């Protein structure tokens, strides 16, 4: 069993790096940690970065999760290979670029590129946010899969993820710690990143951010609303490069592991996705082919 400790990052291709970085800083409110000619790293909390842009084609390159140490990484490699999953060990240069000590990469059964990393660098200095959006942390990431049940079988048989709730066969919300979900899988035609989430400090932050985005003509995809699963108040909006961001406040924590029973919500019920009965749709950022596995 591979023990995921936490989410680490999203790596995204950027056809227009300057615009992608400008939006992430000036609109989303992230801190620009480092910028080179063709790359940029942004953070929301102590992690060195939670979002990296690499100049090139638009699309998600990979998502990263932390494991505890090199033994856990070696165990993960063995476990994945025994399950027939091709694993590629990261290079020293790749690790430096990711600001981790070591890593490996693999594809989930649908072609989402996932990286497992050890020792993601922490930056203890105070955050210098691009604007006061109220961000407290990188909250969760959501992958697309054409078969959410099969994705659940993959994540729950090889990894320590536990399902917190189902939204029919449309979404599976998975936890790796007391937070209701750090990984979600949504039904989509092809692999990709549905969205990345940032927790904010208050309900007021969600609503202030909503006004801020509206005034600037940013495309709001869904919200403000309230998810009955995590009870979080949410706001999804579209950024450059096809990347959907979510702010949310008030995510449920599951503190009694033994007592929690995953619930099943019917997505066709009017308040199964938004308790305030709003309507919206979240468009995904497609996975870029990395050549990790021939398909
Ligand atoms: C929009 C989807 C279908 C949804 O309802 C997601 C639920 C939650 C939540 O309960 O907080 C998310 O934020 C999520 O999975 O992204
Ligand atoms: Fe979300």
UniProtKB/TrEMBL annotation:
Coiled coil: none annotated. InterPro entries: Glyas_Bleomycin-R_OHBP_Dase, Glyas_Fos-R_dOase_dom, VOC_core. Residues 6-119, 137-250 form the VOC domain. This is VOC domain-containing protein. It comes from Streptomyces glebosus.
């Amino acid at each position: 069993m591979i023990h995921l400790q936490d989410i680490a990052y999203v790596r995204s291709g950027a056809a227009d790096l300057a615009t992608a970085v400008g939006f992430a800083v000036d609109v989303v409110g992230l801190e620009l940690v480092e910028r080179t000619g063709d790359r940029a790293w942004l953070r929301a909390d102590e992690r060195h970065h939670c979002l990296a842009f690499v100049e090139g084609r638009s699309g998600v390159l990979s998502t990263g999760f932390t494991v505890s140490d090199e033994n856990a990484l070696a165990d993960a490699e063995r476990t994945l290979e025994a399950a027939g999953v091709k694993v590629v060990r990261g290079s020293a240069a790749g690790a430096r670029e990711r600001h981790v000590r070591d890593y490996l990469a693999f594809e989930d059964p649908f072609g989402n590129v996932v990286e497992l990393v050890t020792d993601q660098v922490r930056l203890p200095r105070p955050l210098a946010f691009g604007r006061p959006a109220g961000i407290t942390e990188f909250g969760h990431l959501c992958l697309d899969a054409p078969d959410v049940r099969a994705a659940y079988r993959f994540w729950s048989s090889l990894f320590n993820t536990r399902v917190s709730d189902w939204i029919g066969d449309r979404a599976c919300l998975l936890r790796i710690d007391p937070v209701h979900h750090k990984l979600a899988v949504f039904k989509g035609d092809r692999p990709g990143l549905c969205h990345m989430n940032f927790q904010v400090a208050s309900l007021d932050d969600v609503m202030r951010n909503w006004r801020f985005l509206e005034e600037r003509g940013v495309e709001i995809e869904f919200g403000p609303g309230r998810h009955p699963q995590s009870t979080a108040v949410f706001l999804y909006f579209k950024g450059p490069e096809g990347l959907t961001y979510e702010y949310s406040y008030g995510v449920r924590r599951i503190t009694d592991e033994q007592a929690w029973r995953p619930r099943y919500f019917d997505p066709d019920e009017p308040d199964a996705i938004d308790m305030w009965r709003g309507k919206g749709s979240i468009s995904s950022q497609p996975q870029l082919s990395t050549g990790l596995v021939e398909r």
